Input
Amino acid sequence: MSAQKTLALTLRTLDFSETSQIVTVYTRDAGRMTLLAKGSRRKRHGVQTSIDLLQTLEIVYLDRSAAQLALLTEFALQREFPGLRLDLGRGYAGFFVAELVRTLTEEHDPDADIYDLAVETLALLETTDAVETVTHAFEARFLRLIGLLPRFDGCASCGGQIEAAGDVAFAPSSGGTICGKCASEAAERLSVSRGALAMLAKLSATSSNKVERLRISGTIAADVRRVLARTWSSILGREPEMIRHLPWMTRSAP
Output
């Protein structure tokens, strides 16, 4: 049992004892992990050094048997994203990112792109004036990375073409847009503008350093919110816990 070193983003923490924590992280090299952090709550030189949410750490751990939690033996703080703690809306968006990564990734299934996307998004959320756009870009790119991005360019049900004019039917349970014939058989469907679908496709392919240049407003913004919210509910079988706290969701129900 050799020690492993990697970078980790903290997604959830739970006090385990007076001196220890159980920590869920997404690591760059080993994917999502839950670790026992012995002694992490001890004061060092009179300073409390507990691991907190939304921190990036360099960690050293021992991956023990399947019946035991991996043991965190060393950690060094890399980044804390203090801007997320100074503004409620930014903080909720950060917690939403953490929730999606925690609930929709598998243990020990690494994807460095997911780690990088989450960290880049948290860094942007600290300072951007486009919190909603940055969050939606994360959602769309994350859906693509986990292989669940809805189809926007044809019927997700039969594979046929979408009618040439007017709004488009979107069925979360079918996995995307659907044609008029299939819409009559869909259990749930939304009427969505073509501009919103084009924006969602663009968001899924836009790099973090360019996403702030995108502008979403009016009907397109409302449709983007509805599509993403219903997509998450369809995938999870429930509404994400943090989504109702996002400022733009409190302004308009999905």
